[in-house]
């Protein structure tokens, strides 16, 4: 059945949003809607304009016989600023302060709306990098990894601190947790990564960077490559950071003594990605 | 700036898809696009028709002053059938068989495309139920809980078998793992649930149902209510099931002896939800 432009625009928008970073040939749409390629091209030009104007992302055109369109999700500078300020406000609630100076984050990291924006923010940073997989460590990093993986449309893999019979053979490494100085073990199923793959490390919280460093060693064991490190929040740490090249959306400072206080501000994400985030608005 | 219909259709589609089960007042769209309510109503009628025709979901209209529109994601019978058959085919690969008759699922449960469909399938079942939170147990249930929570647009909470300093005070229960007959402990942060909430339990795999039963007791401890139980796959179990009211997308049968075999077929999901899934097509 031949379709009307309005129906095509709605269905194409849905189709593209569900498949970020995927090249869709024009012939696919042309067959799906029984419409001429020229009409499809016009439709895509309209979608491109609206996506740009509403800061949804970029609709990239790949010319030639093997070409098509590809939707690249992005976030604009205003929405990024707004989200980070809102999160800083929500983090700075003293009710979140747990014994030992830990911060309660599970409510935020279980809210679809929050995870969606975290995923968009982090995915925007790596839109031009070759990310084949997103890696995190169980448990609290998982929702972040899953959301980023959706926006980059690549699989995510979960490193574990405990051995599980449902993972099959694993590769393990020892690592030093910076904040406690203890040597611990982490492992990943052998089937999870292949040599040469580009891996993006994400986590909910980073203090000394020991856990992230462990994941980096694990990636080396697989002869894969660390593409980047992005965390939701970093905590203040009095000591040598084991990881220096990373971005954080937020920075949290806690005091858990006689006086309790929690201070949250923007991490280095906005500063590091300013030019990129402004690009979408231009 | 007054917008054209085509721009509105694209942006409204995106806006609605990102906010399932959320009532959006017509005045919101009318202001966002500086367009008359009558034009917005016509736009929504077009979106409603396309969503229905392409089996994306239902666009519900709530009349009156406090009214608006609400997008309810659904999956149609054909797409549900197709996805479950595809998964059964992928599960029945003997390479997935692990020592002890366990099945390797981490690749599937780390693939955005697969999680998206699992989320849509399970969310469709509960579109008319009052689900306030989705619950699962760490680690492998998390991606499923997150995906379902996206489509129902409610938070998800993670039960843990190990105690963590980052969860604050917890409520714990003991439970009997049906397959091993061991008594174990699981716990959930006190802040995760409130009395009276409706909770949907999801998990990746169920054998005897001991873990699911543990989650049910935990929900009782919070004076909350179990709305339903849905798992990705159920395994064959020679013994009394501890849970009888559940749905499974798949059913897996493994033999790990001298001869190794793995057999996968559709679970009871399709049969239980046939009428509901056919509704979208009508």
TrEMBL record, chains A, B:
Claim: Transcription is one of the keywords in the record: yes
Alphabetic keyword roster: DNA-binding, Transcription, Transcription regulation
Pfam families according to UniProt: Pribosyltran (PF00156), PuR_N (PF09182)
Family: Belongs to the purine/pyrimidine phosphoribosyltransferase family. PurR subfamily.
Domain called Phosphoribosyltransferase: residue spans: 108-235
SUPFAM superfamilies: PRTase-like, Winged helix' DNA-binding domain
Protein name, entry field: Pur operon repressor
Oligomeric and partner information: Homodimer.
Transmembrane segments: none
Residues annotated as domain Bacterial purine repressor N-terminal: 4-73
One biological process term in Gene Ontology: negative regulation of purine nucleobase metabolic process
GO molecular function terms listed in the Swiss-Prot or TrEMBL record: DNA binding
